[in-house]
Amino acid sequence: MSDRVKYVLEESRLPRTWYNIQADLPQPLPPVLHPGTKKPIGPDDLAPLFPEALIRQEVSLEREIEIPDPVRDIYRQWRPSPLFRARRLEKALQTPARIYYKWEGVSPAGSHKPNTAVPQAYYNREAGIRRIATETGAGQWGSSLAFAGALFGIDVTVYMVRVSYNQKPYRRALMETWGARCVASPSNETESGRAILAQRPDHPGSLGIAISEAVEVAAKSGDTKYALGSVLNHVLMHQTVAGIEAMEQMALAEDYPDVIVGCTGGGSNFAGIAFPFLGAQLRGGRKVRIVAVEPAACPSLTRGKYAYDFGDTSHLTPLIKMHTLGSTFTPPGFHAGGLRYHGMGPLVSHVQELGLIESKAYPQTACFSAGVQFAKTESLLPAPEANHAVRGAIDEALRCREEGVSRAILFNLCGHGHFDMQAYMDYLSGKLVDQDYNPQELAMALSGLPSVG
Amino acid sequence: MSDRVKYVLEESRLPRTWYNIQADLPQPLPPVLHPGTKKPIGPDDLAPLFPEALIRQEVSLEREIEIPDPVRDIYRQWRPSPLFRARRLEKALQTPARIYYKWEGVSPAGSHKPNTAVPQAYYNREAGIRRIATETGAGQWGSSLAFAGALFGIDVTVYMVRVSYNQKPYRRALMETWGARCVASPSNETESGRAILAQRPDHPGSLGIAISEAVEVAAKSGDTKYALGSVLNHVLMHQTVAGIEAMEQMALAEDYPDVIVGCTGGGSNFAGIAFPFLGAQLRGGRKVRIVAVEPAACPSLTRGKYAYDFGDTSHLTPLIKMHTLGSTFTPPGFHAGGLRYHGMGPLVSHVQELGLIESKAYPQTACFSAGVQFAKTESLLPAPEANHAVRGAIDEALRCREEGVSRAILFNLCGHGHFDMQAYMDYLSGKLVDQDYNPQELAMALSGLPSVG
Fold first, then answer.
1. For an interface test with B, which of A372, A421, A429 has the most B Cβ atoms less than 10 Å from its Cβ?
2. Which of A114, B62, B172, B302 has its CA 20 to 30 A from that of A251?
3. ipTM (interface predicted TM)
């Protein structure tokens, strides 16, 4: 093993294909159902929302899907992203563990989200689309689609969860600098939004509501498509560019992960780092423990039900089989806004159901504590979402110390926290508290799941 | 010439030495004078403020000074930093120019400042120092020293210009996350601060005042040293790591700059990119035009006097020969806080006096206009300081278009604007205005320059 701290791949090693885990699954993914007929939907049902190329990727069983050259041309501005050995953190933890992290904060938007924003904008432009509507929680996805839209000449409208819209004017300013239009959700621009505002004019919003608004705009308009920043199969697949690079970088480090940790909201950064390794295992390669870390206040994988549910609050989407807290569940307003979603990507849910991954939930103060320790040793300041992965990785490393065993731990440091400093200020001043979800509300949301067949 | 957009050097190509332009100057730098005797100062005069190793570097005439291994160990987390060909910006400008930029925003603090913060913390720690006092304007320097201090176990106190302290709580939060203590300047902690507050309790502060406070703390205490983020020779020298890398990266691009552009406050990022190329020219190599870009509201190089002056407002520093607006000059509160300093680094002043560089001043709206155009094409969001370099580079590229000539333009994109979004919001909403300096105040400040010999 080398004594290096950074593993950088040459631009020529930028992956030429994404990895599609659907090719290697021991059991196929349950189909997506039409909410009226409860029958599997076909490509035509999705055509109002997505360009054909993305619909094909959503259901493809091909193992490798080519990354178009114009997408690679943009990727190569920041990709291959670096992989680091966290030697200073290891020393501070006095652990025999070898901790590695993939650093996705080097993208222009500061997170992993551009990995899918760029191809989504590209395929839409190729299909002649000039307008896209989307939602955003903390703003990482909205800003990523804003910058991708700017590059391909696509007008982007972002429905931003109102509480984040008000709390994070700077994330909004970033989107607007790249030319996107940002609207607080629920808004008066859609029926979904108006219906919710009629019931509660000061509604703080949720990702489920913002999705309803963006989907409604796309479904009703002839010239606008919809884009989603996580959950869907093609989105998770675009993120595998990070895991494919990480496999090669671990080889440069002459090492291989025993454990992989990622934070999960809809599952995209987690799948991005984990699926290429899991795929290798499924094809007979080395087994790796994979741990999904989620917020205790929005615990879809650890407390949700694996069932068919809507992806949005107003029930405009098809029914997806996933770990869900119920589409009417509103998580408390904790700081990792990117993880505040009632459901989990169907592929992540499926591999958990198959026993191929583990999951774990942490309250936010424990995550910020890990994030500050990471910042003081490794210098990079993680996003609140990424702090969940840091917490999970540190706990794995501490277990290595207790057991006196050296394991290789790899985690995805999926974004920086430069737009989340209020959360750090709250944490440092002792104001940050752990808000749990309301168990009655969860029970009610789960009891309202749609009945399927 | 290749068609690549990114030029990355292997970790093994991280420079082993800094470049000291004092070895190649056609005339030596005028000496620093004792304010009482008006005679050149000796190392003993600086010993209360700096560790011996840095004092030796300040006056060294050696061309190459070795970068210590522990410093390189930290540098290699983000260095060598990437150099980009701005192909999308070139296309938008319809220019035949080849535009390159060195991207220093990849450091943990988001700017070039860690290039000197890390060695300064290292040399202090080697000298047994456990406490450092410093100043900061916009916060890029203070946060860089905060993170470097965390790595070397040094307590850092940052006197932050009060107007920035109030306007930029998130920059402050970043410093505090890394463990530094941040104090609004002028403060009640020093005689310098108390004297100014007695005259004007709501004083907004200035870099000159904050320097006085930090210098006073170091001079009076037995266990605290002082650190400066720009201006001094050793600071500019540490920044040459960027220019040395850029020379190698330009060679990878099979190109060589005809023009180099950098923004200038105290001169450190400018010197960092330009001096290695200027040194090559001075040793008989290819000539390169070098353009320093400064804010029209604080125009030390274009409107200042080349004269001996104090580095701080309370006149605690030695006298330095530099382009200065007078140590009592208070620039208006424009958004590039890192460029709001009355003086210019003596080395930058000296090479301008020798006719080796040009300088140019821009109002801030013109710089933000360039920054937004850059963000929309190249995707990275520049700091307000860096927008001055972007403006300068774009204007050079437009000149190429007018003249129908293809030139290679290299500029230093010295930091990101993630902590400066209020300025972008002001610009986008049309609220950002160009504030000029007060000519009477400038005349008065210049008339008060100390008389020397």
1. A421
2. A114
3. 0.95
